[in-house]
Write a structure and sequence with these properties.
elongated, mainly alpha
Length: about 250
């Protein structure tokens, strides 16, 4: 059945995407919270926050994009939980399809849905005054980092989606991920934070990812931040993928 993996995944991906088109409110809801935070911090708190000479919306956007992804992947866990609860997985097991295609269809659906949400958030940021002189190469690098970050968190979301006992449990795991950017350089420079908080902020993955995106947007040298960001994303992806696939095999065995 392995040789049918790509065809089976494509069919199941179409199924998942049709579900999204029938409930477009999930994408809208995913984008609403990051947009509300963008509006709040730029127009309410922005005047009181010192983040350098650049406009605050330019400084803020990379962190908001990560929050968009973190809030979006909760729907992956939610959809997986519903499929498990409704017995969809058992039905698929009785059909001649590649078993791994079921998970990959959900993962690819997450990438598509989150990409749409990211485009919406960037569009709102442009209306609010966000400007970047980044060239095509820099924008592609930003896209690559965001897609890798989304892929890593999506595989992380698969685990609670398969193991949660309730809908709330399936979605609640994303809350710490949404909160993590607040303890990073996403909203304020880490140099303004007290010692212990600053130490944590400077050595957690969000800060390096945010700094790399910000440097790409502003055409500044990315230095080690990009490589650290990629290492964090790749490490989370590998660990999450291994645990997710092991969990899936136990569930269907």
């Amino acid at each position: 059945m392995t040789k049918h993996f790509f065809g089976d995944t494509t069919v199941l991906l179409g199924r998942s995407l049709r579900h999204i088109t029938r409930s477009a409110d999930t994408i809208i809801t995913t984008a609403i919270m990051p947009i509300a935070m963008l509006l709040l911090f730029v127009y309410v708190f922005g005047g009181a926050i010192k983040a350098g000479s650049d406009s605050y919306v330019n400084y803020l956007l990379p962190g908001i994009l990560l929050i968009t992804v973190a809030s979006g992947i909760s729907y992956t866990a939610f959809r997986l939980f519903l499929d498990m609860k409704n017995g969809i997985f058992e039905r698929f097991q009785s059909m001649p399809i590649a078993r791994s295609s079921v998970l990959w269809a959900h993962v690819l659906t997450s990438l598509v849905a989150n990409l749409i949400s990211l485009v919406v958030v960037v569009g709102v940021a442009l209306l609010m005054g966000f400007r970047s002189g980044a060239g095509v190469g820099a924008w592609l690098a930003v896209l690559g980092v965001l897609l890798l970050f989304t892929l890593a968190l999506t595989w992380l979301a698969v685990i609670p989606g398969l193991t949660a006992k309730s809908v709330d449990g399936a979605s609640a795991f994303s809350y710490p991920l949404i909160f993590l950017p607040f303890l990073s350089s996403a909203f304020v420079p880490t140099g303004t934070m007290p010692g212990p908080v600053r130490a944590f902020a400077e050595h957690q993955p969000v800060t390096s990812i945010v700094n790399a995106l910000r440097s790409l947007f502003t055409q500044q040298p990315v230095g080690a931040d990009l490589w650290i960001a990629l290492a964090w994303c790749a490490g989370i992806l590998v660990v999450a993928y291994v645990f997710a696939t092991l969990t899936y095999r136990r569930k269907i065995s």
